[in-house]
Structures are given as structure tokens and as C-alpha cells.
Amino acid sequence: MTQTVTDELLRANERYAEAFTDPGMDARPVRKVAIVACMDARLDLHEALGLELGDCHTIRNAGGVVTDDVIRSLTISQRLLQTRAVVLIHHTGCGLHGLSEDFRHEIELEVGQRPNWALESFRDLDQDVRQSMARVRTSPFLPHTDDVRGFVFDVTTGLLREVDPAGTPGR
Ligand SMILES: [Zn+2]
């Protein structure tokens, strides 16, 4: 029988569980921070930011876009699990950078149904981070919007660069 990737993951989990001891934590993130980041496979948030198990909430999707569903998770994170800071991380070489909205149209032609979600592709990386910061800061559902910072992770150097929320679009 051929092993699928999921079978490999399950074997790894057995090894993980053997060495695992109950950390005795509750669900509230120790460092009271929620991180919204792109799902990109090159971005290891815990390693890149010095995070330990239990430190933070991580909310990830294609682009690290602040969608309604991300606001839903942040609302639960802040109101029920006491996080206060929000860190947004987009990155160089993102698959959404420069992707045409034709992508949705092509899907519609193929499957006969228009996706009901926005693609959220972008042309200006910094402006995309600013847009995400603005969506968090202006959300009426979030009680804590005074510590919201946005960054670009460089997938070739591993460094974060902060984006000035007051900057203007480059193009
Ligand atoms: Zn990405």
C-alpha cells in the first residue's frame, strides 16, 4: 500500500506524542498576541519570531488578508481569549502579488459558478499591508486596535520590515 503524505504526518505525530508532556496551559495565549499571516510554506512564524507553544494565536490564509473570517477569529481571540496586540505579516514573492482578477473569471468559466469570495490580489505589497492594518483598526468588533502593526517578511533573508501605516501607495 502506498503511503500518502497524510500517512507520513500521522507517523510523525506518533513520535511527537511519545515525547509530548502536557504543558498544563489553558487556551489563552501567554503573550496576548494574534498574528495574521500568509499561508506561504516558507514562513515559519514560530521560528521567525521566537515564539513558543502557547504564546500566540496564528491566523493564516492566502495573502494574510484580513477577511471577514479573520475578523471573526480576531474577535474571538480578543474578546474570549484576552489577546491585545495584532501583528500582520505579508511577504515577498507572494502568489497573490500581481495575480489578475481574471483568475476568478477563469474559474467561473470552468465550473459554471462565480466564486463568492474576493481574490484579494494586489499590486503594491506595502499598500496591501496598510489595507490589512486599516481593516483591523476600523473593525467595530475588536476592542483592542491600538497595537496593530504590519510587516513584510523577506523570504530570502528571513527579516521582517515594518510598513508605515501612514505611507502612500507606490503605484
Ligand atoms: Zn503569500
TrEMBL record:
InterPro entries: Carbonic_anhydrase, Carbonic_anhydrase_sf. Catalyzes the reversible hydration of carbon dioxide to form bicarbonate. Its cofactor is Zn(2+). PANTHER family: CARBON DISULFIDE HYDROLASE (PTHR43175:SF3), CARBONIC ANHYDRASE (PTHR43175). It catalyses: hydrogencarbonate + H(+) = CO2 + H2O. Signal peptide: none annotated. Keywords: Metal-binding, Zinc. Belongs to the beta-class carbonic anhydrase family. This is carbonic anhydrase. One of its GO terms (molecular function) is zinc ion binding. Pfam families: Pro_CA (PF00484). Its EC number is 4.2.1.1. It comes from the Bacteria. Zn(2+) binds at C38, D40, H91, C94. Binds 1 zinc ion per subunit.
